[in-house]
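Lab channel / #folding
Pinned by the channel admin:
"Please post every new chain as: sequence first, then the structure tokens as a reply. Keep commentary short and put observations after the output so the thread stays searchable."

First post following the new format, from NK:
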Amino acid sequence: MSTVNVLNNILDFFDNNQVVGKTHHVTLISTVKSSTITTLIHIHARHTHNIQADPHLSPSVWLQDSHLDDHQTTALDTLHEESEEALRY
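Reply from TO:
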């Protein structure tokens, strides 16, 4: 096992794919085929730039509306409207 230098960045990626079959037969012993594939990737970056300390990558910078294009703004507005509508019921 190798030792990780904590001064560098470690990039973690996670992906979970699930496939669940459908059935219209509901009984006490009915079963449905399903599968789950989980992928974990850990990358130890060799550069010394600390991305955690980079102010340009802070969410307070890139989550501002001025950094979004029209398509992204429309999508966020639609999600916001749908969530407000769902909360009314």
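NK: Residues 10-88 form one domain.
TO: also worth noting, The chain has a mean pLDDT of 76.
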